[in-house]
Amino acid sequence: MARETGKTAATKGSRGEAITTPPELLAAPGYVARRLYQSYVALWTRAVDPVLTGPQFAVLTAVDNYPGVDQGSLASSVALDRSTMADIVRRLEDNGLIVRQTAMHDGRRKLLHLTEEGARRLEEVNRRARELDEHLLKGYSQAERERVLREITALAAQWEALLGDE
Fold first, then answer.
1. Range in 3-7, 13-17, 36-40 with the lowest mean pLDDT
2. Which residues fall within 8 angstroms of residue 80, CB to CB, at 6 or more apart?
3. What's the chain's Rg over C-alpha atoms?
4. How far is CA 66 from CA 69, 90, 98, in A?
């Protein structure tokens, strides 16, 4: 399916002229990524959950997939630094969605498990998140969806790798 690219909302300037996004911004991948992210967060809040954030959802999903894993190991799997991960885990624990247990042979390691409420909430939010995913990619064939996600994932990996080049 053909898609229009580079279209932006136009507003009227003080003299009535159309004000659109400058082309040099549309050619900047970081600018476009920020627009995507802003739109996604707004849609997530409206359609999925106004309280549970995307990163919190990612942590719940990862804990569900790897019950009993330590929070340090889990942080990289959800693309969070250790301090952000610790903050998110604390909030999820305060809200009764996960429990942290100290590892038997290493008191510094905190092992994560979903609570019953955490599992219930994850199932509920996951359903709405998948509905949002469908809405976001409406009009794309399955093959196009897979290609877009492969390209976005590769771009994310490339940008994350640049952080290691410093």
1. 3-7
2. 55, 58, 59, 88
3. 20
4. 6, 18, 13
